[in-house]
Specification:
- The protein is built from five helices and 19 strands.
- By secondary structure, it is mainly β.
- Strands 1, 3, 4, 5, 6, 8, 13, 14, 15 and 17 form a ten-stranded mixed sheet that branches. It has a nine-stranded antiparallel sheet with strand order 2-7-16-9-10-11-12-18-19.
- The N terminus and C terminus are likely disordered.
Length: 357
């Protein structure tokens, strides 16, 4: 992930007319203004705030020493750019890829973390937008991490969404799952949320749970258990993000802009010197209705599963035993963990049973 050191960089304020509106708010949580809970960590003028401070734009471009005023107005469609004001700062004199990002002002031990996100449209190969929890700045060799990573694609191909879990520096054992989305994430905002408690981790798209990671004895220290900060970033992942690096970022389409709204930190804050051994932040387990919705999403939209990747893990990781006992899911994936092509009955336009499981 990007550098986790918190820097004091200028923040840009924009008065603009919204092209897309965030979805209806999530129930029972308060949305924060940027200044209430977040700080910029890199990107200088590539981070911009909507009036009121509850909506943030992160941009990835190729800096050429020009001031922010040189960013094309087309970043903000039609005549929506009414006022652009730079507070302080200077720009680099050399050409380099420049992403941007922000982080929570504090550390948290468990809680609910959420944002409504709208991804860059058109050609976005190599672009990575991330919304994640990490403590890599505090625990360099034993860090924990919970990721939503959005992986850009070539024109005409959909963005892919990846979740991952690391605990106690277990980066040698990636626990990635990848999904197709049942909507276009570049057209409108959608909520992406992480619930992290002492007993479980649940990832949500809008209000549908898409993945649950329960704390088990077999997972041991690989279950994240130390205080973490929240991060949101956009950056150049040309070396791996799109078809293993086959397609990189093409800066003739820059700037690439991701928007964040409905920022939620419904969590237990801790002091950096506090013990990580106890927390009163917890939540009830998913309801039967939520579990049914999660199972349906996973059957229909999961495109890669580390638990079924025999080329990567000849012996499945311990927590994958439960996944192996669900034949309706296991038979959807090939030996590389990728979802098998969907099949159709010959002579009909109907999908085979495997395709709808």
């Amino acid at each position: 992930m990007a550098s986790l050191a918190v820097l004091f960089l200028p923040v840009l304020f924009l008065i603009l007319r919204a092209e897309a509106r965030p979805p209806p708010p999530l129930h029972g949580v308060r949305h924060l203004a940027f200044e209430e809970g977040y700080t910029q960590i890199f990107g200088s003028s590539n981070l911009a705030l909507h009036p009121g401070g509850k909506r943030v734009r992160l941009a990835l471009d190729q800096s050429t020493g020009q001031s922010v005023s040189a960013i094309p107005v087309s970043v903000f469609p039609s005549s929506s750019l009414l006022l652009l004001r730079t507070i302080t700062g200077s720009s680099s004199s050399c050409t380099a890829a420049t992403g941007s990002g922000f982080a929570s002002q504090g550390l948290f031990l468990h809680g609910f973390f959420s944002a409504a996100i709208k991804l860059p449209a058109a050609y976005a190969a190599g672009v990575v937008v991330a919304f994640y929890l990490s403590n890599g700045d505090v625990y360099e060799k034993t860090h924990d991490e919970l990721d939503f990573e959005f992986l850009g694609n070539v024109r005409g191909r959909d963005w892919r969404v990846q979740t991952n879990v690391y605990g106690n520096g277990s980066t040698h054992a990636g626990r990635e799952e990848r999904y197709d989305l049942p909507f276009d994430p570049t057209e409108d905002f959608h909520h992406y949320s992480i619930l992290w408690t002492h007993q479980r981790i649940i990832f949500y798209v809008d209000e549908t749970p898409i993945r649950e990671v329960p704390r088990t004895a077999s997972m041991g220290a690989a279950f994240p258990s130390k205080p973490m900060s929240l991060y949101a970033t956009i950056w150049d992942g040309s070396s791996w993000a799109t078809l293993g690096g086959r397609y990189g970022v093409d800066y003739k389409y820059a700037p690439f802009v991701a928007e964040f709204a409905d920022l939620v930190l419904h969590a237990c804050a801790v002091d950096r010197s506090a013990s990580a051994s106890a927390s009163t932040c917890d939540a009830a387990a998913a309801s039967a209705e939520q579990r049914s919705a999660m199972a349906a999403f996973r059957r229909g939209h999961m495109s890669y599963s580390y638990c079924h990747d025999r080329r990567r893990y000849a012996a499945p990781l311990n927590e994958c035993a439960a996944a192996e006992r669900v034949p309706a899911i296991a038979r959807l994936f090939g030996p590389d963990g990728m979802r098998l092509p969907r099949r159709r009955h010959r002579g009909t336009g109907h999908r085979a049973q495997d395709d709808v499981m």
